[in-house]
Amino acid sequence: MSTPITQLPVAVLGAGPVGLAAAAKLIERGLPFFILEAGERVGANLLDYAHVRLFSPWQYNVDHSVVKLLEPTGWVSPNPTDLPLAGELVERAMQPFAELPQMREALHLRTKVVSVSREGFDKVKSAGRDQAPFVIRAIRDGKVVELRARAVIDSTGTWNTPNPVGASGLPAIGEREAASHIFYGIPDVLGTHRARYAGKKVLVVGAGHSAANGLLALAELAKQVPSTQLVWSVRTPVSTRVFGGGDADALPARGALGLSLRRLCDTGALEFNAGLRITELRQEGGKLLVEGVDRNGDAKHIDGVDEIICATGQRPDLSPTSELRVKLDSWLESTEALGPLIDPNEHSCGTVRPHGHRELAHPRVGPLHGWREELRPCAHVPDGNGLRTGSLGGGGDCRRHRGRRPGAARAARDGCLQQQWQRHGRRGKWRFVLWAPAPTATIEPVAVASAGGSCGTKPRGKPIGIPVAAAAKAGCCS
Ligand SMILES: Cc1cc2nc3c(=O)[nH]c(=O)nc-3n(C[C@H](O)[C@H](O)[C@H](O)COP(=O)(O)OP(=O)(O)OC[C@H]3O[C@@H](n4cnc5c(N)ncnc54)[C@H](O)[C@@H]3O)c2cc1C
After folding, report:
1. Which atom of ligand 1 is nearest to the CA of 83?
2. Which residue has the higher pLDDT, 204 or 60?
């Protein structure tokens, strides 16, 4: 006889900051779980940009539950106001957490999830679906493995599915062919990738913090190797937006990034193309000719480009969910309720209010509620994400709601783990609340991830952890 669904472990997909925060919550709750991580190590995506200094300080970067589990081992928290490099976050907090005895058996590295479904049910079949365990198919050491779970927390991030150079959301014509000249993400311009950029004409595409980081590093390189040329292009014609909140930014380091970039532009150290929509990349004599249209719709090109750094953000990989019943916002690919709250056409850093399970769960269109989005309320925004938005630093208290099924929990009873911002008393603190398994329920939700909205957004009342991070489509945490 197969194991009843209620006795199955919870599956956490991805061991980034959010996945580890989820694990910490599950450990606290005494719920069995496993984590499947595609990379060689926890924090694999952060290690991709290990050299980048985060704009949120330590105090906001490590989940309270992670800290609580680490402290008894003698772990000493770094100075809460220091800004870590992304790599330091992995080495000093995430890796020690991964080495805890509670994590050792649960963590499966080099295990890439390729799909999630309901055991014995294709997408169409309804009767009895609610009782069917989730089945998670993954590739480990070149072999297919399948694991069963009572609930799934998707914390796979968006980092691995970058947006293209092409302005229409499609790769520019010729973009694939020019791939060897394009770096998607944030290269280590002053370190590992120095030779690739020194003395070259480099075009940085994108209006977010990743682009800013790249440009500032290139400017430093240009001081050392003056023949290095910097070109920057953004789709938006409004240049003020791309420089962010400046002195008014809720996170000073993030504001400083925008200010430094503005200064760089003002000095004429880079060629700035606002409102350029790139349509085509042509290879000519080992260089790239970048073609597009300007803000007036007139043809414009940039020639002689050696390298492109594409920092146009990321989007979720929806392929693993294709056999699940999810209902997505048609352009943000978030849950429907969340879309309007984080729509970058309306919002920028600082204007997204905190949100929780109501916005992050799917309507009851089937047995799955918010399999992906509930845990990454911001990360799925095409161009934005944030530690806090994913769940890191979620803090919060683990409350039990036994025998009670508040609407919040009810909405999630299918097994997707849920959380909620809750205020304790009229003037109380805002906290993340975790829903515990109720004795009678098929699968009761437990919560994990924080429900942050946008970089620098403060929850009403006093937030726990970082002011909820980032997500303006073109100008936030990407
Ligand atoms: C340059 C840069 C600077 C940033 N600075 C800040 C900052 O200062 N403050 C802030 O709050 N946020 C910042 N962010 C955003 C922050 O890094 C992300 O929000 C955060 O890493 C999200 O955590 P996550 O766990 O959701 O995703 P990730 O860190 O992307 O982790 C996802 C994990 O899932 C794994 N994975 C992916 N797909 C699969 C699969 N199919 N199967 C198994 N495993 C899988 C990955 O290998 C990875 O380990 C920054 C982002 C960038 C790019």
Report:
1. 8
2. 204
